[in-house]
Amino acid sequence: MANHKSAQKRIRQTERKTEVNRKRRSQIRTAIRAVMDAITAKKKDDATTALKKAESSIMKGVSKGVVKKETASRKVSRLVAAVKKIA
Fold this sequence. Notes:
The chain is mainly alpha-helical.
């Protein structure tokens, strides 16, 4: 346990930020899962709508520092390719 006041404050801040980042990451995963579910159900309209929300959520994660830019770009690219494959 930290002995200094500043170190204790830092621990509290880290705990709060960790919780926020965990929720953001979870939200991104949920959005991606929604796209994948629509793709497996072969529903192109639903997949397109879910893709738009997922892309927004992923890019918001990038701006908040939860996900790296390249990782987000790769995820979005793969989702777009998968949605395009639906006949």
